[in-house]
Amino acid sequence: MKLTFWGAARQVTGSMYLLELASDYRILIDCGADMEREEVPSTMLPYRSVFPFEPSMVNLVLLTHAHIDHSGNLPNLVRDGYEGQILCTAPTMALSELLLHDAAALNRRRLNKIHGGKRRKHNKPKIDTTGMYLESHVKETMERFVTLAFHQRFRVSPQLAVTFIPAGHLLGAAHILLEITENGETKTLAFSGDLGRKNYPLLVDPEPLPEVDYLVCESTYGNRRHQATQSPETIMADVIKRTCVDMPGRLIIPAFSIGRTQALLYTLNQLNAQRGFPSIPVFADSPLALRSTRVYERFTRQLNQEAQEFHEDYEELFDFSNLHYVEDLKRSRAISNYLEPSIIISSSGMVSGGRVEQHIQVNLGNPYCTILMIGYAAEGTIGHQLVRGDKQIKMGKQELTVQAHIETTDVFSGHGDLDDLLDFVKHQKPDRLKKVFLSHGEYPDAMENFRSELQQLGYDNVEIPAKGQSFQL
Q1: Residue 40: its pLDDT value, please?
Q2: Is the predicted pLDDT of residue 47 greater than 50, yes or no?
Q3: Is the pLDDT of residue 39 over 50?
Q4: Residue 366: phi, psi to the nearest 5?
Q5: Cβ burial, residue 150 (10 Å; 0-12/13-18/19+)
Q6: Burial class (CB in 10 A: 0-12, 13-18, 19+), 399
Q7: Which one of 15, 185, 250, 267 is separated from 438 by 20 to 30 angstroms, measured CA to CA?
């Protein structure tokens, strides 16, 4: 069999791996959007496929989890001719539907902007619509989803069996274990997906894999360890007290709508229910956050034991008396000028678009405001500038002086760090594991450091594949 790395190869995003069996059966593991791909000018180019292979020749898709850098190209795959099933867990299907429809709506707004809101009948310019699927494509894609339970060994054929194993990281996220029989010999191959961390709010701990012949492992935190040593509740209680009680002022938290926002709301609910924290208004300013929170509520039994016990004791995981979901844009703009102490949770987490930009822009010059960054912010984003400590930030046509307090914490990071990654691989015996492939990480810093650490532990066959590179297994 042959494994080709078509995404997340020497970069973080765009996870996509094509496995071709001797029988000519083709399996695509993840089909993510490449967030680091250079944007192609949106005019004067014909439509181009986003895939370097023929989608109609793929027989099966396996999806580790819902995040757009793992699922975001599925509608393009279907649009370009894929006719098979998409296997994943039930929560992954539900969250993928939300994220893909959200992406389709964004694509529609972009296309409308390109056309100036008008459809021309003659001399209509050709545009590059690469990746710009619409709601109809998402609907067709969702019809191909088939869900499997964790630990359910699903035999696709006499030659192929698939098992999903809990990975933490996000509701429904899985490691994927493949058992493949060719020429009377069975080989095992596993994909880590995104590795979660232990004791994360709401989520189960990532489970180890059984011993395998080949392992594809993410390396996002391949050169980093988490800095936060206190619990999420303790860290949040401290920043809220200093910002909203002692000052009193406003706390703005940029957070992705799926995953981080639910962890935050759950933590704030714990503070309200168990620590008698002051009743400070909390605004969850994201329609997608509301919809995804409802998905989390549907799958309470797949959350960790602490969350299930909290739900039994208090009946609600995310809803508390001073929580307000903000759906319409007019109200979103109004809360930026709310005069009383408050907490605003809004997307995007990197401050790269979304409603949070308005809140940041209005409050950047407010010395009574604290902006708490709780996740990674890529270079080139406003979030990155804030974390870096820039004193002047350009937003739109304005050059703004930063007078708000900027704080950071990695306590809500959903990725396992270097120690977690090493522990994950160490469940494999070095003399049994034929090869480790590193993906989904910054190159060379994170990937090369992780490889060096593994080699010191006796794992000699560690590869860092380039995009398009193939390996015979």
Answers
A1: 39
A2: no
A3: no
A4: -95, 110
A5: middle
A6: exposed
A7: 185
Among 2.30.130.10, 3.40.50.1820, 3.40.50.720, 3.40.50.10890, name the CATH number for the domain at 232-408. Answer: 3.40.50.10890
Please write the tens of the pLDDT for every residue from 204-257. Answer: 999 999 999 999 999 999 999 999 999 999 999 999 999 999 989 999 999 999
87, 193, 338, 369, 457 from 363: Cα distances, Å: 44, 37, 11, 7, 49
| DSSP string over 69-101 | HHHTTHHHHHHTT--SEEEE-HHHHHHHHHHHH
- In the DSSP assignment, the letter for residue 444 is T
**DSSP label of 210:** P
Span 299-336, pLDDT tens digits: 999 999 999 999 999 999 999 989 999 988 889 989 97
Query: HSE of 403 in the Cβ direction (CA atoms, 13 Å)?
Result: 9
Cβ atoms within 10 Å, residue 393? 17
Is pTM beyond 0.90? Reply is: yes
Instruction: List Cβ neighbours of 396 (8 Å cut-off, separation of 6 or more).
Output: 361
What's residue 113's pLDDT?
79
- At 27, phi and psi to the nearest 5? -120, 130
Instruction: Quote the DSSP letter at residue 300.
Output: G
| Cβ neighbours of 464 (radius 10 Å) | 20
pLDDT band at 41 (very low <50, low <70, confident <90, very high): very low
Would you state the CATH architecture of domain 2-224+414-472?
A: 4-Layer Sandwich (3.60)
45, 112, 318 from 108: Cα distances, Å:
18, 6, 31
Write out pLDDT tens, residues 291-300.
999 999 999 9
**Residues near 172 by beta carbon (within 8 Å), at least 6 away in sequence:** 65, 66, 88, 89, 90, 91, 92, 93, 94, 95, 299, 302
Judged against a pLDDT cut of 70, whether residue 130 lies above it is answered with no
* Cα 131 from Cα 116, distance rounded (Å): 20
Return d(Cα 204, Cα 162) in angstroms, integer: 21
Helix, strand or coil for residue 322? Answer: coil
Q: How far is CA 303 from CA 91, 171, 191, 297, in A?
A: 11, 7, 22, 9
**CA dist 360 to 220, 344, 365, 400, Å?**
27, 10, 9, 10
**d(C-alpha 424, C-alpha 259), whole Å:** 22
Per-residue CA distances from 7 to 167, 218, 233, 425, 472 (Å): 20, 12, 36, 21, 18
Nearest to 289 by CA among 313, 334, 324: 324
How many CB atoms are closer than 10 A to CB 192? Answer: 27
CA distance 292 to 306: 20
Q: Comparing C-alpha atoms, which of 220, 210, 187 is closest to residue 471?
A: 187
